[in-house]
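Section 5: illustrative case.
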């Protein structure tokens, strides 16, 4: 005989009952079927709500009519479709149950309380109506059916609302009952009788357990749990879009997964079927041809050590602490005695090795009761200050990874915790079962959805995600968007999902939950109605559960740079060519690095010096290997390299600047280049990178423009005035030429002093040949002397800068290791 259990999700309406009937009758052709049914969808919740309403004296009529509508509309629908469906008989049973319910509710209202025994009688009423509806449908379809009464044949003891099966006692009762073997058996789930013959229920969602008890009692060949998903997935498919079906699980794996929140199976289900070694299959009523998930005593999956991830929400952590805990024998047993006496189930326990405190997690619904029983049990210790007041922390979740193979593998916990840190979630407590089959972490509830998404990604997909927000669509921003558009499909083929979710200029911000279409970003931006603020994008990230958000600041704006600490603290990586943050005060510079370290986010700015050239990274690598900067000389400005190169060729300063500007080689305001300020900023960044503590004012800067030149006005006015500097400049160039030299704008660090200014250099000087936008950086260090390390190449231009930003962006991808 096979046992088939159909949950409320499979019994939502008349059509679903027919689908169930089709499945059962099809299977009945080859083997006898025992069907265990839940109440129709929503009915048990409705009954629970009714009990609570009655206790609090609230009006129950709306809930009653809702219940009646659910039940009677299914019966009427079936009667309409099947001429021989005996709706009157089924309706009679349903009416009896509703009458019984109303009487009981009245009693509860009068008393203002509901004993658990009465509660149990009420909340399983839906199951009893459900079996009548279904047994009649089977009969009307021409097959014999009998209703099995679990309150006469199944034995379970303990609490009225959370009883545990006695399989041996149930076997005896079944052996005495002579039940027709060739009829379809239909049994209400969720309830049984105790040894005193009273009705008990098996805990919410307990029909799975009923099926397992029945299967064990009658030695069924299989126990199938039919639900609304194709089987057990490696994460809840309703929460993780990419969750994959697990073909096979061991009993223990299934137990751990369900215990830690995988609602697809009730945690108590596995006990009986494992003990009697009955195979269990989870299958989909809506997709009966799918094979489902097989649960047996083996664990087969060579590919995945971790089989699944689950989360338990609405968890409260209780902390019992105080000087009285130390060395006092029996504290733990007193705590858990008190808790279990009140039928509160403990989900997870941790104890500090100092024995100063014991913490454990319970369902939040039990928290008020738990506090009360502990305060009673430890009244004396609390009043004598041997214990601190019992502390409760709400709104937590437990996230667990499960797999039999975890025992033999190293690095799993590391990967799990790396995933949680990637989610930026604070771990409140950790527990690992001694079987090493599961590891659980208690985290803030509001982060559980993100945590499960990232953990799933890291264990089950090779997908790496970058969730980008681009601010600034000027020269560099535009070039970056173009490169991103081109690379997106290539990265995708390498399992990297790089999407731009937001794009902003100084006026507007376009946001798209699917990621912006980069081929049309101009029109997306033009029609956008929101504005770039941290609050706006933070809300967007939360709403869309983005897990690796990066702000790419392609502006040269100081007001945006001032917010980097806030960006990092809000969980964003920051990638930028904007030099303003790194050249702000030393205090802010340090604060930025501290924020990045604390939030485990990256602040990346390789393009601050030498655009796409590998300057910062090289310097950081050298210094972390123990090198020290001794001196530095370089042409750090692509625009000045270009302009001074053009002066060699006989061009005027005004003409050279205009060309550099139109080629996109200058800062948006060319005065930033010509004033020397841009070079000074780069020099400051180099110096700070090398460990020198200094401010921008400490740098000696000589402007490119003659002291007499008036550089006021708008960008355009400035450019119009620039020819006035030509004559004076020509003289400088000519003087140098007379000595066989050329002019170069050089930044240097020497003896702890930073300078930038114009130098005339001869052909023997390494910077003589540097022009046309090239940069050259000569780094003299402990390891590189007397011949310095020279980095040379184009140090300006939208494409190389954007490519450098792109490279930084790729470095925000989380650390990954295959396990
Ligand atoms: P039923 O009414 O059939 O008993 P439940 O709602 O109790 O159905 O259980 C099925 C639900 O369990 C699914 O719809 C799914 O959202 C949830 N679930 C949670 N974790 C998992 C998982 N790992 N695999 C499959 N389903 C899961
Ligand atoms: N109907 C009960 C509940 O919702 C039992 C079950 O369906 O498993 O809790
Ligand atoms: Mg269920």
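Designed sequence:
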């Amino acid at each position: 005989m096979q046992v088939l259990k159909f949950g409320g999700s499979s019994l939502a309406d008349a059509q679903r009952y027919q689908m169930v009937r089709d499945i059962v009758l099809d299977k009945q052709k080859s083997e006898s079927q025992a069907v265990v049914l839940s109440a129709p969808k929503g009915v048990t919740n409705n009954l629970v709500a009714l009990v609570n309403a009655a206790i609090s004296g609230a009006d129950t009529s709306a809930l009653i009519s809702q219940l009646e509508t659910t039940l009677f509309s299914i019966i009427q629908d079936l009667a309409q479709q099947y001429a021989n469906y005996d709706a009157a008989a089924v309706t009679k049973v349903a009416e009896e149950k509703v009458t019984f319910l109303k009487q009981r509710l009245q009693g509860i209202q009068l008393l203002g309380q509901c004993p658990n025994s009465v509660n149990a009688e009420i909340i399983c009423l839906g199951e009893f109506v459900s079996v009548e509806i279904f047994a009649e449908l089977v009969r009307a379809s021409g097959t014999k059916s009998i209703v099995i009464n679990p309150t006469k044949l199944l034995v379970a003891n303990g609490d009225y609302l959370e009883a545990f099966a006695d399989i041996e006692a149930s076997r005896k009762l079944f052996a005495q009952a002579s039940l027709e073997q060739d009829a379809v058996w239909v049994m209400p789930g969720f309830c049984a009788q105790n040894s005193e013959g009273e009705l008990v229920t098996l805990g919410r969602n307990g029909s799975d357990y009923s099926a397992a008890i029945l299967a064990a009692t009658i030695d069924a060949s299989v126990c199938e749990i039919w639900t609304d998903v194709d089987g057990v997935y490696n994460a809840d498919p309703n929460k993780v879009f990419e969750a994959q079906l697990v073909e096979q699980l061991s009993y223990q794996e299934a137990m751990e997964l369900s215990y830690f929140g995988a609602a697809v199976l009730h945690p108590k289900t596995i006990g009986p079927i494992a003990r009697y070694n009955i195979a269990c299959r989870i299958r989909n009523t809506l997709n009966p041809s799918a094979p489902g998930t097989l649960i047996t005593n083996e664990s087969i999956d060579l590919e995945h050590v971790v089989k699944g991830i689950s989360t338990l929400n609405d968890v409260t952590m209780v902390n019992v602490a105080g000087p009285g805990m130390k060395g006092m024998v029996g504290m733990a047993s007193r705590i858990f005695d008190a808790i279990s006496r009140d039928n509160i189930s403990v989900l997870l326990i941790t104890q500090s090795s100092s024995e100063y405190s014991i913490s454990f997690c319970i369902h939040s619904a039990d928290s008020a009761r738990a506090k009360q029983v502990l305060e009673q049990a430890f009244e004396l210790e609390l009043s004598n200050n041997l214990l601190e007041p019992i502390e409760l922390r709400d709104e937590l979740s437990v996230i667990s990874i499960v797999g039999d193979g975890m025992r033999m593998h190293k690095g799993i916990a590391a990967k799990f915790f790396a995933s949680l840190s990637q989610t930026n979630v604070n771990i409140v407590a950790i527990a690992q079962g001694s079987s090493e089959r599961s590891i659980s972490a208690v985290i803030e509830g509001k982060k559980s959805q993100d945590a499960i998404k990232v953990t799933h990604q890291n264990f089950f997909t090779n997908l790496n995600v970058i969730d980008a927000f681009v601010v600034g669509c000027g020269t560099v921003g535009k070039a970056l968007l173009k490169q991103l558009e081109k690379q997106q499909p290539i990265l995708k083929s390498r399992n990297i999902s790089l999407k731009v979710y937001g794009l902003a200029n100084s006026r507007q911000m376009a946001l798209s939950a699917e990621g912006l279409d980069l081929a049309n970003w101009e029109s997306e931006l033009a029609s956008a109605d929101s504005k770039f603020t941290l609050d706006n994008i933070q809300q967007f990230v939360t709403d869309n559960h983005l897990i690796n958000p990066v702000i790419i600041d392609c502006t040269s704006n100081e007001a945006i740079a001032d917010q980097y600490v806030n960006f990092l603290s809000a969980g964003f990586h920051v990638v930028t060519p904007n030099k303003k943050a790194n050249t702000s005060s030393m205090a802010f510079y340090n604060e930025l690095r501290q924020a990045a370290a604390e939030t485990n986010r990256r602040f990346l700015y390789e393009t601050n010096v030498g655009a796409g050239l590998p300057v910062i990274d090289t310097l950081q690598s050298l210094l972390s290997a123990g090198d020290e900067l001794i001196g530095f000389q370089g042409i750090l400005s692509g625009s000045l390299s270009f302009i001074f190169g053009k002066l060699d060729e006989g061009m005027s300063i005004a003409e050279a600047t205009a060309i550099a500007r139109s080629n996109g080689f200058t800062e948006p305001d060319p005065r930033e280049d010509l004033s020397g300020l841009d070079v000074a900023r780069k020099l400051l960044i180099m110096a700070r990178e090398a460990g020198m503590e200094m401010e921008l004012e400490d740098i000696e800067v000589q402007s490119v423009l003659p002291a007499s030149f008036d550089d006021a006005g708008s960008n355009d006015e400035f450019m119009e005035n620039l020819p006035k500097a030509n004559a004076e400049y020509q003289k400088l160039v000519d003087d140098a030429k007379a000595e066989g030299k050329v002019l170069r704008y050089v930044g240097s660090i020497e003896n702890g002093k930073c300078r930038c200014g114009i130098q005339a250099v001869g052909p023997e000087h390494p910077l003589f040949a540097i022009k046309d936008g090239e940069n050259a950086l000569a780094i003299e260090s402990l390891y590189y002397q007397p011949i310095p390390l020279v980095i040379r190449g184009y140090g300006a231009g939208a494409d190389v800068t954007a490519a450098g930003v792109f490279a930084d962006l790729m470095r925000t991808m989380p650390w990954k290791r295959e396990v």
